[in-house]
Design brief:
BirA Bifunctional Protein, domain 2, binds adenosine-5'-[phenylalaninyl-phosphate]
Length: about 325
Amino acid sequence: MDELHELKKAFQEELGTVAGLEDLQKLKAKFSGRKGKVSAHLKKISALPPEKRSQFGSTLNEIKKFIEKEVIQLEASLKAEVQQKRLQTEFLDISLPGRRQLFGREHPINQVLTEAKDIFISMGFDVEDGPEVETDYYNFEALNIPKDHPARDMQDTFYVSEDIVLRTHTSPVQIRVMEKRTPPLRIIAPGKVYRCDADISHTAMFHQIEGLMVDTAIAFSDLKGVLELFIHRLFGKDTPVRFRPSYFPFTEPSAEVDIGCIFCGGSGCRVCKTTGWLEILGAGMVNPKVFEMVGYKIDQYTGFAFGLGIERIAMLKYSIDDIRLFYENDCRFLSQF
Ligand code: FA5
């Protein structure tokens, strides 16, 4: 029995020296563990004379319960202490304003592209599509631009191989559509095009919308009507429009279309190079040689075609004087649209 009293005393003394949860775990193992002191004493019972076993056993049991109770109590208070310390050190300031969520939006070029498409769709034009990696035939030959023709120098071309190019304009879609459909035709073909070109008003990749209308009696006045309506819907009905004679191998006659400079109102400035006018597209009546290439009867059909640059239109619409801003992915710029 003295040994048992010693056991309890020893536990109480060591309990007083416990400084943290780790110490407590060690103490618990030392006294209540499988190989601990309480178990060691339990094993002694069988060696005692039978009349002493009962008292020894019940006292040992009381000590065992006492140890367990003390350990649980101290463990709870040590854990509470740890938590209190964490609450004090890991302070969360919920009064700080949150970080604002950034939402994506449509790129300004896509916005203008959609707006332009919608205007033509409302005039009854169908939307067609064509490949960006194009054959020399569709990009040039079928559009009356034979090999070694000086007109090839009008567009600086990226060649994939001798006969494959990155399309330099959306005009090859005209050929692809006429090959598979017969007039009457009224289509637009929006998409990306590529040229080896880079300065404040030219990029290596840009967007065009091709337009093509073919029927039995299409006249230049139809072309003028469609394009004037388009420009007035996009830039406002008082915007001056001018058709200026030009040259494209696939149209005859050809024109370039200018709008009155929106920066200076027509009086002349740096942007319009003091002319008061800004070019936005190329157009003309479909050259009969192109009709022959696709097998249309040239005495039966006439048509017009046009090709406009979306970046150029977006620059004018939003008064942006450097085309490269559209492709630098600066959210401060892009989020304004
Ligand atoms: C053509 O590409 C002709 N295919 C247009 C055409 C179609 C004429 C049908 C007649 C009939 P041009 O090379 O001028 O033409 O380009 C048309 C428009 O694309 C230009 O008015 C300009 O707005 C835009 N553009 C041309 N090069 C670039 C470039 N590097 N970066 C941005 N826009 C460009």
